[in-house]
Specification:
The chain has 80 residues and is an all-beta fold. It has one domain (1-80): SH3 type barrels, CATH 2.30.30. The chain is 0% helix and 38% strand. It is built from no helices and 5 strands. It has strands spanning 6-9, 23-30, 35-41, 47-54, 58-60. The chain has a 5-stranded antiparallel beta sheet, with no helix packed on it. Strand 2 and strand 3 (35-41) form a beta hairpin. The radius of gyration is 12 Å and the shape is globular. InterPro entries: DUF4926.
């Protein structure tokens, strides 16, 4: 995975309102791919979070996948 690649989050990060399946963009690659700085944004480009993540916490997007949306302003109580 390289800078500016889209990636998919593999796990929830509740403190940052991020959920597995959220799509982000790699900003920086650290230690030859052992860690990555990833930015997650709304569809209008507003930054939600910039997180340093380990390689196992993200994966590359697949050509067969389609993007979906969820509202980060909505409190999700079901299926945490």
């Amino acid at each position: 995975m390289n800078e500016f690649d889209l990636v998919v989050l593999n796990e929830n990060i509740p403190a940052k309102r991020l959920k597995a399946g959220d799509v982000g963009t790699i900003l920086t690659v650290y230690s030859e791919g052992k860690a990555f700085e990833v930015e997650f944004v709304t569809l209008t480009g507003e930054a939600v979070a910039i997180e340093t993540l380990l390689a196992h916490q993200i994966r590359a997007v697949r050509a067969s996948e389609i993007m979906s949306v969820r509202d980060t302003a909505v409190l999700e109580t079901a299926n945490p």
